[in-house]
Amino acid sequence: MADEPDEDVRERLRAALWFAVGKMVDEESLRRNRNVTPQFIGALMEMVWTHIESVAMDLESFSRHAGRSTITTDDVLLLARRNQDLHGIIKDFVDKEKAAKAKGKSKK
């Protein structure tokens, strides 16, 4: 019984992912004048879900290894380290956010 709320959340997340993937695929298939089957959308959603689970486990492992119980931007940057373009985009975003916070604190 303790797993029921977790399973309910999991199923709602999967349904939301199905909807989001389906919407993106529908938009792209209309733009390209192509037909897509529900089976394709389901397979793509499963692939994305599996990747999300893997990313989540890696982030938790990085955080735990650093002795933290909270995932930080450092963990995300570590995860993206092998994709230089993605790493650069995330690093630029994090740096801008830190600068904005520092600027906001200095005004007070």
- Helix tally equals 4
**Which of globular, elongated, flat, extended, rod-shaped describes the shape?**
extended
- What's the quaternary structure here? single chain
Low-pLDDT windows of residues: none
Largest sheet: none
How helical, in percent, are the residues?
A: over 70%
Number of strands: 0
% residues in beta strands: under 5%
Average pLDDT, rounded to a whole number, is 93
Q: How much is the radius of gyration in Å?
A: 19 Å
Give me the strand/helix succession.
HHHH
Q: What class would the helix/strand composition place it in? A: mainly alpha
Task: Measure the end-to-end span.
Answer: 50 Å
How would you explain this protein's 3D organization?
Pfam families: CENP-S. The chain contains 4 helices and no strands. It is an all-alpha fold. Helix 1 (3-31) packs across helix 2 (38-65), helix 2 packs across helix 3 and helix 3 (73-79) runs antiparallel to helix 4 (84-107). The chain has helices at 3-31, 38-65, 73-79, 84-107.
Topology, element by element:
Layout: H1 3-31, H2 38-65, H3 73-79, H4 84-107
Helix pairs in contact: 1-2, 2-3, 3-4
In short:
Belongs to the TAF9 family. CENP-S/MHF1 subfamily. The chain has four helices and no strands.
Q: Which characteristics define this entry?
A:
single chain, mainly alpha, 4 helices, DNA binding, protein heterodimerization activity, 108 residues
